Amino acid sequence: MYIVGELINASRKVIGQAIKEQSSEYIRQIAREQEEAGADYIDVNAGIFVEEEAACLEWLVKNVQAAVDLPCCIDSPSAAALERGLAAHTKGIPMINSISLEKDRYDQVMSIVRNTDLRIVALCMSDKGMPQTRKERVTIADELVNKLVQNGVKIENIFLDPLVQPIGTNDSFGVEFIHAVEDIRRAFPEVHFMCGLSNISFGLPDRKYMNSIFAVMAIAKGLDGLMVNPLDKKMMANIIVAETLAGKDRSCKNYLKAFRKKKFEF
């Protein structure tokens, strides 16, 4: 399972304030805590700053890289901001979040990732808007994967995001996402997945509980990447157990390792 720690996002008030005040040590501490909790990548997002986004993203990347040995997931729809963040990145191979079939976004981001070893989050979205059904997601995924591969992106570096949408707005959004994961996994066994899981519970009470159950259901169908809060011990425990039950944990090694380190909290 690929875990992207989601906490360094300027839309969170404490992070937005830390960026404004240039509180380097606070950002570094959040990065360290996520690394210790089991994150594989540290997401950095400065989207609320708009005109200053590129400079803020560069600052975030530098501070995260100074604090941990993990690569960043550089999170922006702006090619200019992505390039600024990449220029500051020094440890490991970063992840770019994201590209889609929306023409402007596709053209700009493709110019960055073409013929590179960068990991790339590929949103199952086009100029027609957000997909509603599994079929729409699979159709977009098929076109997007093939275009990326044709442009020199290794298939194993593609992290498809079938786009989680709030079940509170449509009863079918949960199952349509899960079935899309299963269909895409069958069509492209070498690709990975990445998604913002918490979108499923937007607007509903007891969101953490719903998010955890949804993660377990999606992992059973082939999901292998999540953008989550790795400090949420219950969520992380559910992920480990789900992977073990889905046959993705040979001889239950990860389960036993987590048990010995007392990582389970239910």
Describe this structure in a few short sentences.
By secondary structure, the chain is of the alpha/beta class. The chain has helices spanning 13-20, 24-37, 53-67, 79-87, 103-113, 134-150, 173-187, 207-220, 233-245, 253-260, and strands spanning 2-5, 41-44, 72-75, 95-101, 119-126, 158-161, 192-193, 225-228.
CATH fold-type name of the largest domain: TIM Barrel
Shape: globular
Strand order of the largest sheet: 7-6-5-4-3-2-1-8
Residue share in β-strands: 5-15%
Tell me which CATH architecture of the largest domain applies here: Alpha-Beta Barrel
Radius of gyration, whole Å: 18 Å
Q: Helical region count?
A: 10
Q: Specify the CATH class of the largest domain.
A: Alpha Beta
Q: How many structural domains does the protein architecture include?
A: 2
Distance between the termini: 20 Å
Total beta-strand segments: 8
The CATH homologous superfamily of the largest domain corresponds to: Dihydropteroate synthase-like
Structural class: alpha/beta
- pLDDT averaged residue by residue: 96
Low-confidence stretches: none
Task: Tell me the helix content.
Answer: 40-55%
Give the H and E element order. Answer: EHHEHEHEHEHEHEHEHH
User: Main β-sheet: number of strands, strand sense, barrel status?
Assistant: 8 strands, parallel
Domain Pterin-binding: 1-266
Keywords: Methyltransferase, Transferase
GO molecular function, one term: methionine synthase activity
InterPro entries: Dihydropteroate_synth-like_sf, Met_Synthase/Corrinoid, Pterin-binding_dom
